[in-house]
What does this fold into?
Amino acid sequence: MNQKTALKQLKELSKYGNDLRLAAESWSEEWQSLISTMLSARTKDETTIDVCNVLFEKYKSLRDLSKAKFNDVASVIRRVNYYKTKTKNVLNCAKMLVREYNGEVPHELEKLIELPGVGRKTANVFLSEVGKDAIGVDTHVSHLSQQLGWTKNKRPELIEEDLKKLFPKNKWIIVNEILVRFGRTYQRGKKREEMLEKIKNMC
It folds into this structure.
C-alpha cells in the first residue's frame, strides 16, 4: 500500500458518519474525555455518552469523582460493559490524577498508560482528542486497516506502527475518528462490504 492511495481512501472514508458523536468528543474538561474513553471500551458510544452525561452531572469535578463511593458510581455506569471493573478503575484513576497531577490529565503517553484503566488505545484516543499526533487502534481501526490492506498485522501495537509509517504525521490525529465513524455507520452486512470493496479499489 502506498501513501497516495491510502490518503485517497482515508478521504473517501471521511465522508461517512459525520453526524455521529464519539465518546471522547465534546466534553468541556479533559478528564471527562479521558473517563468517557475509558468507559467506552466494549460499549457503544451512544450508551457511554448517555451514562457520562449522568456521571458528570453528579460529579462536576475530578476531585468530586475521586471522593465518590464505589456503589454510587457503579449504580450510575452499570449500563456499560464490565461496569464493576470500570468503576474501580475510574475511581483509582481520578484519585491518581488528583494526587499526582493536581487534577490535570498528562499529555504524555508514558504517563497516561500508568493510570488505572488506561491502556495504549485509550491513551492514544485521548491524545488525538486534545490535539496530539497519535493513533488509537480499537476494533474498528484494526478491522478496517486489515481489510483495506493498510496492515497485515493483527496486534494493535503493530497496526499502530504500520499506520504511522503509512500516513503523514499531520493525519494521525484523524485516522481513529474517521475509521470509527465509518465503522459505526456500516457495522456489518452487504452494504459495508460493497463500500469497502469500492474504497479498496481506489488508486
About this structure: The two ends are 10 Å apart (CA to CA).
